[in-house]
């Protein structure tokens, strides 16, 4: 059962990344370098990213139980569960149209934002805070120097990238989406590889 739960974490992390990469590159009118992953939840194909948020978030939440069983760390399980649930919330409460997407939307940030957008923003902060927190906990919970160093690197890199993404978003940088994608790939990869390693140790 533990391996099945850990496998859910592998599937959830990989599927999420593959979905936004492929959908972002093939979505008409969408600029993956500028626009955030969350914008993919808007427009006629928005259901694809909404489903990804909810499904992958659910799988990652399930993997938290497996991580707790495999490592004996309650705090690691809690951090990953919070991360997964925040992903689900990001899909249930999508961001508002803005900054040119969907096509036809004014190329600016609205002066007034919906309550759903505010909930989405809050969930996003939790997502990008919970993952580095999980990595920090893993530094102390995991055996082996390699995993401790990898977890520490992930915690620092993911935090710096999240801060960079936040600054880019506030400045409407043309590379906002790119910075966010790097942050996601760094953090999600660590979690997926960890789940895989614990499920199928070499």
UniProtKB/TrEMBL annotation:
* The UniProt record lists the keyword Cytoplasm: no
**Transmembrane segments in this chain: where?**
6-26, 47-68, 74-93, 122-141, 147-166, 178-200
Which ranges form a coiled coil?
A: none
Q: What is the lineage of its organism?
A: Bacteria, Bacillati, Actinomycetota, Actinomycetes, Micromonosporales
On whether Iron-sulfur is a keyword of this UniProt record, the answer is no
Source domain of life is Bacteria
> What name does UniProt use for this protein?
DUF998 domain-containing protein
Q: Which InterPro entries match?
A: DUF998
Record key words, sorted = Membrane, Transmembrane, Transmembrane helix
């Amino acid at each position: 059962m533990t391996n099945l739960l850990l496998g859910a974490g592998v599937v959830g992390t990989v599927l999420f990344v593959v979905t936004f990469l492929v959908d972002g590159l093939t979505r008409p009118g969408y600029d993956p370098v500028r626009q955030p992953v969350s914008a993919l939840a808007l427009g006629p194909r928005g259901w694809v990213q909404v489903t990804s948020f909810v499904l992958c978030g659910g799988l990652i939440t399930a993997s938290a139980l497996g991580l707790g069983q495999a490592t004996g760390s309650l705090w690691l399980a809690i951090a990953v569960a919070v991360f997964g649930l925040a992903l689900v919330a990001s899909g249930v409460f999508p961001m508002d149209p803005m900054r040119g997407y969907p096509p036809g939307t004014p190329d600016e940030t609205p002066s007034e934002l919906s309550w759903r957008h505010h909930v989405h923003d809050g969930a996003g902060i939790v997502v990008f805070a919970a993952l580095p927190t999980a990595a920090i906990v893993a530094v102390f919970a995991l055996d082996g120097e390699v995993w401790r160093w990898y977890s520490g690197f992930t915690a620092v890199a993911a935090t710096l990238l999240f801060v960079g993404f936040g600054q880019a978003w506030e400045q409407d940088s043309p590379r906002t989406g790119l910075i966010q994608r790097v942050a996601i790939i760094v953090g999600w990869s660590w979690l997926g590889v960890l789940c895989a390693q614990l499920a199928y140790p070499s």
